[in-house]
Specification:
Layout (H helix, E strand, L loop, with lengths): L2 E3 L26 E2 L10 E2 L15 E6 L9 E3 L2 E9 L23 E9 L5 E10 L17 E2 L3 E5 L5 E5 L4 E5 L23 E3 L2 E6 L6 E6 L5 E6 L11 E3 L9 E4 L5 E5 L5 E5 L11 E3 L2 E5 L8 E5 L4 E2 L14 E5 L10 E3 L2 E5 L4 E6 L5 E6 L11 E3 L2 E5 L4 E6 L6 E6 L9 E3 L2 E5 L3 E5 L10 E3 L1
Parallel strand pairs: 3-30, 4-37, 20-24
Antiparallel strand pairs: 1-25, 2-5, 4-36, 5-6, 6-7, 7-8, 9-10, 10-11, 11-12, 13-14, 14-15, 15-16, 17-18, 18-19, 19-20, 21-22, 22-23, 23-25, 26-27, 27-28, 28-29, 30-31, 31-32, 32-33, 34-35, 35-36
């Protein structure tokens, strides 16, 4: 493995930091995990969370609520409400094929679906409301490992925004009233090599200071757009010319001073890029990574970290926050390294999982459960360990209180201590499959399994027998 381092520096029978509107007063301590991977997609909570639990016995589980249908969207949180989405097939339970395999042909699941947005009480697990956003046959097929509700919703003090790809973008208030709906037409998501290999839409929306950011890289015309969150009206849209289909959620990198610009960070094959939020101006761009990009970029420690995989490359890249212009990834000996790159490694990156930075270290987990720890500033690898012997991993890691949580597709969560040496603290079984990324809010871990949403508080909390809502 080559490394180049530039040391310079629940109802019936699938990022960012959200800022509240100035007109809405919110207590500073309201629990928030507002979009995919929480604040700015960094995935790190400020409060301690559970270390040990068991889903089958209910040990450490405050409640679990059945969520019909199939969805890989992650739960999001604002105050005492948890929001998530699902797609319910009229034909009955949808098939889900997990594990490590390489088939690219879509699932036989093209019949009528109902797409739902759901609100759950975070304290009790009770369903507060459910709204059917759309009903019909899906315009795009899904991968056997995917769902028709992959995209994680996003929430701020006033709104909940859910994106169902070709079925549209929907905005609700916190009580479930539809505020607006917008269609982008058919968004064909699948292999860039053949139109028949459709895999389902996966990018999640981002809410930031009264704006909604949408990334739609598809088999046809890829684009990035910003909408007015109050009305759904388009503010600007730019084409990402020639971009491969991606399943990556964009994120926001706030300005760090009067001379800096608030940026949208987007993954891609030809357009790993930063755009000015106000105008859509491209500030910097990279191309030539993995050709099926999924992970979300993250900003930490004055750097932007990107990874993607598939094809000959699976890079891990650290871009300087002040980078500008077009940069290139070059093999050793191919020429001078772009000055905007702090360090990069051309192989060893993640296909599905967004990486995470905790303290001074960057952690990257691959589909096969091989997890690596790097010095975030210069790319030196501290260790590499295999978390599991044969499980697949799709969920992205999250962290709290110096502990990292890696959840496999079998629902096994490996709790690992942060630091430069590997320390496995616990291995916890949920009892059902998990492909969604957990959320952390006010000390509770919210894990969306194949059939249930779990509120986990751990063995030290007062939760001897869980509340179950079916």
């Amino acid at each position: 493995m080559q490394r180049i381092s530039l040391a310079l520096g629940r109802i019936l029978g699938f990022s960012c930091w959200l800022s509240a509107s100035a007109a809405v007063a919110e207590p500073a301590d309201v629990a928030k995990w507002p979009s995919f991977r929480g604040e700015y997609a960094i995935g790190v909570a400020t409060q301690p969370a559970a270390v040990e639990w068991d889903g089958d016995s209910g040990r450490g589980v405050a409640w679990k609520t059945r969520i019909p249908g199939l969805g890989h969207s992650s739960p999001v949180v604002w105050g005492e409400r948890v929001f998530l989405t699902t797609a319910v097939s009229a034909a009955g339970e949808a098939e889900l094929k997990t594990g490590l395999y390489g088939s690219g042909w879509p699932a036989d699941d093209g019949g009528e679906q109902s797409w739902w947005v759901i609100a759950v009480d975070r304290r009790s697990g009770d369903i507060l409301w459910q709204q059917r956003a759309h009903r019909g046959k899906p315009a795009v097929q899904r991968h056997p490992k995917a769902s028709h509700a992959n995209s994680t919703p996003t929430v701020d003090a006033e709104r909940v925004v859910a994106f169902f790809g070709s079925e549209g973008l929907f905005c609700y208030d916190h009580d479930g009233e539809l505020l607006w709906h917008k269609s982008f037409g058919v968004l064909p998501s699948g292999s860039y090599r053949t139109a028949e290999a459709q895999w389902g839409f996966g990018s999640s929306p981002v809410l930031y200071e009264g704006r909604v950011v949408i990334q739609a890289d598809t088999q046809e015309k890829s684009f990035l757009a910003v909408l007015d969150a109050a009305t759904g009206e388009q503010i600007w849209r730019i084409e990402r010319e020639g971009e491969h289909p991606t399943w990556s959620t964009p994120t926001i990198q706030p300005a760090r001073g009067t001379d800096d610009k608030t940026k949208i960070l987007a993954n891609g094959f030809r357009h790993m890029a930063a755009y000015e939020l106000a105008s859509g101006e491209e500030l910097w761009r990279l191309s030539g990574g993995g050709d099926v990009p999924v992970p979300t970029p993250i900003a930490a420690r004055e750097l932007v970290f990107l990874t993607n995989a598939h094809g000959p490359r699976s890079p891990i890249i650290a871009v300087r926050q002040g980078a500008r212009g077009v940069m290139e990834l070059r093999e050793p000996g191919e020429g001078e390294v772009s000055r905007g790159l702090a360090w990069f490694e051309l192989r060893g990156g993640a296909y599905m999982q967004t990486p995470i930075v905790v303290g001074e270290e960057l952690y990257v987990c691959r589909d096969n459960g091989v997890m690596s720890c790097y010095d975030a500033d210069n790319g030196t690898r501290h260790y590499q360990e295999r978390l599991s012997g044969g499980d697949g991993f799709t969920s992205s890691p999250v962290a709290a209180d110096g502990k990292l949580y890696f959840t496999s597709e079998t629902g096994t969560t490996h709790v690992v201590g942060a630091g430069t040496t590997f320390q496995r603290l616990a291995v916890n079984e949920l009892g059902e499959e998990v492909l969604a990324t957990p959320a952390l809010a006010d000390g509770m871990i919210l894990i969306r399994g194949r059939n249930h949403l779990f509120g986990i508080v751990g063995t030290k909390a007062e939760a001897p027998s869980p509340s179950t809502s079916d």
